[in-house]
Amino acid sequence: MKDLLSDKEVSTVISLLEEIYPFANCELNHRSPFQLLIAVVLSAQTTDIRVNEVTEELFRQYPDLDAMLELDEERLSVIIRKIGMYRTKSKNVMALCRKLKNDFGGNIPETFAELVTLPGVGRKTANVVLSNAFGQQAIAVDTHVFRVSNRIGIVSGSDPLKTELALMQRLPKEKWTAMHHMLIWHGRRQCFARNPQCASCGINDFCMMFRKAAVK
Ligand code: SF4
C-alpha cells in the first residue's frame, strides 16, 4: 500500500476538516502581536491551557513591551513558575523584550528572518506569529501537526522541518494557516498521541494509518 494520499484525497481531507472544525483558531489567549509572541515563546513543551493560566495574570499586570521591561528575570519567573522550563523562558522573554526595544524600535518584526533572531524564537514561533498576528500564510509544525499530518499521509516527514517543507509543497498556500490550526485541533480532540479515536474520526476514510490498520 502506498504511503501518501493523492492530491485529490488531500483536497478531500482539507474540506472535511473545514466542516469538522469551522472555527479552528489559535488557542493561546492574546490581545496584540506582542502578547501572542510572548505566549508562543512560553508555550514550548507546555499546554496552551497552562500558558493561558499564567498569561492571564502576566498580561493583566504587564500588557505591553514597555510594561514588561519593568520586570526582571527573577520577578517574571515567579509569575510564570507553573509552566515547564520557567527559568529559561524568563531569561529568553526578558532578552527578547530588550532586543525588541533596542533593535526593532519596540515593534514586532514582520519577517521570518527577523523573528528568528529573537531569543527563544524558532521556526514554529515565527510561523505562528506571522500567520496569527500578521495574516501571512504559514505552517508552524508543532507536535500535533507533525503527528497528525504524517499519520493521515498528507506528508511523510521524519522531523518537523521536513514535515513543514513537505506540507508547503502539498497544501495550497491559501490553506497553510487554516491547516495548521485544523491539524492541531484534530490532534487535541481526536487524533491523540496515545489512543487516537479512529473509529469515530470524520476523516478515517482518507487516513493512511487507518487504512493500514484495516488491512492487517
Ligand atoms: S483515523 Fe485515526 S490516525 Fe487517522 S486521523 Fe483519524 S484519529 Fe488520526
> What small molecules are bound in this structure?
iron/sulfur cluster
CATH topology-level name of the largest domain: Endonuclease III, domain 1
Helix run count: 12
CATH architecture of the largest domain: Orthogonal Bundle
Taken from the alpha-carbon principal axes, the silhouette is elongated
H and E order: HHHHHHHHHHHH
User: Roughly how much helix do the residues carry, as a percent range?
Assistant: 55-70%
Structural class: mainly alpha
Mean pLDDT: 96
Kindly report the name of the CATH homologous superfamily of the largest domain. Hypothetical protein, domain 2
Rg over CA atoms = 19 Å
- The number of domains is 2
The strand count comes to 0
CATH class wording of the largest domain: Mainly Alpha
Structural write-up:
The protein folds into two domains: 7-23 and 139-215, Endonuclease Iii, domain 2 (Orthogonal Bundle); 33-134, Endonuclease III, domain 1. The chain has twelve helices and no strands. The chain has helices spanning 7-20, 33-42, 48-61, 65-68, 73-79, 86-104, 112-115, 123-134, 143-152, 160-170, 176-189, 208-215. It is elongated and about 60 Å long. The N and C termini lie close together (11 Å). The mean pLDDT is 96. The structure holds iron/sulfur cluster (SF4). Iron/sulfur cluster is lined by residues 151-152, 190-191, 196-198, 201, 203-204, 207, 209-210.
In brief:
The protein has helices spanning 7-20, 33-42, 48-61, 65-68, 73-79, 86-104, 112-115, 123-134, 143-152, 160-170, 176-189, 208-215.
